[in-house]
Amino acid sequence: MKKWKFITSIGLATLALAACSNEEGSKNDSTPPIEQPAENEQNTGSEVETPSMTVETVQQYFAPDGSHLHYRGIGSEFAELDVQVRHIGEHYVALVESNGGSVVTTVYALEDGNLIRVLREMTEFEETETGEMGDYILPTVERLDASEERVVVYREDAQKGDTFTIDDATWTIIDPSMTLKTDTETYENVVHMQVVNETLTSDYYYKVGIGLIKHYDEMATEDKDDPFIVDSELESIEQH
Fold this sequence. Notes:
- Residues 1-18 form the signal peptide.
- Keywords: Signal.
- By secondary structure, this protein is mainly β.
- The protein is built from 2 helices and 14 strands, in the order αβββββββαβββββββ.
């Protein structure tokens, strides 16, 4: 059976979600250094529509139920990500994220206009008759209703400069509505969130109707001119 281990730094990629679609005015000068896209932009291969909307349900923050999001990775063997989107009942959305070294399930809900994290844990799997790992197991609605975790990770009325305390770290809204170019697509109305500590700066970019678009880590090293960079960027969305 394959051994799965929890990698805390990569698990941060599922902490917060989406931008308020009513915000306007991109501010690209606040974006950290990111790779420029090829001149001939390619389609992500997804037929998922991401229109501007007022978010009324938690499902609207994410790609549709059954979507598989693949992120190409640079700088670390754990930078490449695969995320499955699953709806649980009417009020919860689960993201099942694998980085090749761990599989983590994070569940979100919408309460009083706040996007909240209801649960985050190592993913459980069915065990087959041969002892191999089978399909993943999602938490039940009853268990999620009883969860006391409920961490606010985003508010739809968030403004530039607002902060959120998530797992004892302070996250800042750098830009609530920017344009982000990737290797495969240009995304409008993207929210840029950032968390900084002594040696590591982490930038996350989210789009309503999809979720995470890009995760960019820059860590200081002994060579100040050569930081360690981990870059995960959405490459494709498939519907299953």
